[in-house]
Amino acid sequence: MYSGNPWGGSFEVAAEDERSRAAPRELDETQRSWLLEPQRREKKDKYVDLGCVVCKRKVIRWALWALVIAFFVIALPIIIVKSLPKGKPYVAPPDQYAVALHKALLFFDAQKSGRLPKNHKVSWRGNSGLKDGSTLTDVEGGLVGGYYDAGDNIKFHFPMAFSMTLLSWSAIEYSQKFKNLGEYDHVRDLIKWGTDYLLLTFNSSATNIDKIYSQVGIAKNASTTPDDHFCWMRPEDMDYERPVLQTTSGPDLAGEMAAALAAASIVFRDDEAYSAKLVKAGAALFRFARSNGRRNRYSAANPEVAMFYNSTGYYDEYMWAGAWMFYASGNTSYLSLATNPGIPRNAKAFLPIRDLNVFSWDNKLPGAELLLTRLRILISPGFPYEDMLNSYHNANNLNLCSFFPQFNSFNFTPGGMIQLNHGRPQNLQYIVKASFLASLYADYLDLVGAPGFNCGPNYFSLGNLRSFAASQVDYVLGKNPRNMSYVVGYGPKYPRHVHHRGASIPTTARDYGCTGGSKWRDTRSPDPNIITGAMVGGPDKADGYEDSRPNYHYTEPTMVGNAGLVAALVSLTATAGSGIDKNTIFSSIPTFYKTNPPPPPPWKP
Prior knowledge:
about 5% strand, Glycosyltransferase, 22 helices, about 600 residues, two-stranded antiparallel ribbon, three-stranded antiparallel beta sheet, mainly alpha, 2 domains
């Protein structure tokens, strides 16, 4: 196609001779580098001979770096910490309420009757009352156990039951405080000592009962027959007859005992068998209390009871026991009874009677109203309970309002003690229970975020409630005109001549007889046995106090007084934390589904 070569030259390839093709062409070094990939050289591991072992140098290097890092991360901090001055973590010292609480609980150990455990906390007490109720044919082993009431050796079951209810209430609300102070097992032991005994005082295994043993031991004024007042003897030395009293009617006694067992059943929820036993026994007592043929005060026509613990009514116990039985069992029939309008009407709960504002062994209204107010503000069950719960809530507020001096409901001593018993003796037992209610209500309101409450047009903060409670307990502990603690063993100055048989008679006394002990009652020497934690009757309306053993109005302690003191102290102490256990008391109650009240009846012209 092309006739010539436009680039010039021939199209033929020059021929090469055979030699040139046979001999390979040698490449210089640069050319070889263009064509040949350089060969990779494998690095050889280097070893170090350590004598017995030959190791790679790399391994040794890693090990050395690991040791250096370990030194800075582990060893150096340890060296620094160990070089610092040694010391325990700082723990805040217990406040005055915690210190007093430890002591107040010991009073109950000093009051125990029966066969005491080997690890008993009060060295000068021993076994006593081992023959109590031994002649009874329906109580196996008799009525051994329980607590002596005060400075004498009588076992009054009505105030004993109330004391157990109060201890249980405080243990339920402030269980964590008791635990933090190391006293939870102790207070449970005290409660169980009481409830085990109360279970002996009636047929606790039966569904229906027809009698209750109400008291062991008696005392008669101006009597020359040996009894628990005529004789001044240590309980370990009693050798006189101790009659057992019984009642076949008594909603007050039965109601309080039901409340005690019900409250204790919540404390012992971790022991299902015992808790169920207490609830069942409480139900039998409540049924007894509600029986139509048995509605008469247990102290009526019974002077051996009435001269010491005369009950003035029993409708307050219906409300009180109904609330506790509802919390313990979850059975709403108890709540229905407690909120039945007829109960507060018969109890005169909403009438302006000052004495009914005072919580005591005889008047449970303030405690019952606060207990049911708890249900309203924390659960709010609604219809059909709301109207009556709201009324109880209002009554509770009025009770607490009456403690503030601006309302002039109660007088105060010059030193600041409120006179809840109108200047009569043994006022301290009332003021500590009022302090407990005020402090506990403040904790309830705090839990729901309420900053205070109204007393008519006046507003009172939670601080006002707590200040009142603290002021009264502080008075008991020594902030008073005499600068004297009224709790034995607390503070530098406290009662040394307590009206108490066991505290006043030396443990070495022998064969002194019924009246022979009076020499220790009348001596001016201080008690040979310190009854630690006992709160005495206290000062009079002018803040005066006589530390005289024969003057029992000033110097005699009681179970109900100390139960209130324990409750007030644990509510006020800040050493062991703050606040209450919201839910434990509600563990058995059902879920409430709020319903609307029925519509009003149609209007008729």
